[in-house]
Request: fold
Amino acid sequence: MTTPPPPGQNPYRQPAAPVPARRSSVKRVLRGVVTVVVAGVVVYGGYTTWFGGASTADAGDCLHAGNASATAVISVGDPEFEIVDCGTPEAQFKVVSRASGTDGNCDSEYQRYTQGGAGRDFTLCLEPVK
Reply:
């Protein structure tokens, strides 16, 4: 014969299941922040490559070469151009002319910048700002 349960306890009650360990909420938050930052960098890089900087520059605009001095022959991927106000010290080049395609020619006194890909081929003739 079995012993009866102590008074006030249910004889059919099972012991509680162990509670699964919770992940640290700090780790989840940090992972989310890192994911958002990486996604932002990728989106910004894509935007500036295809829709900003040299790809939107027109004659009369001034440019700053963000990651290069851009004093020799300039090709896609060399400088990360951004359009700046021509009166600022950041202005390094003034766009003299813009032509469709990568086979445009510039007079010898100007630097030639070409960019191509995905139907966005163009040539800029750049005059150094003194």
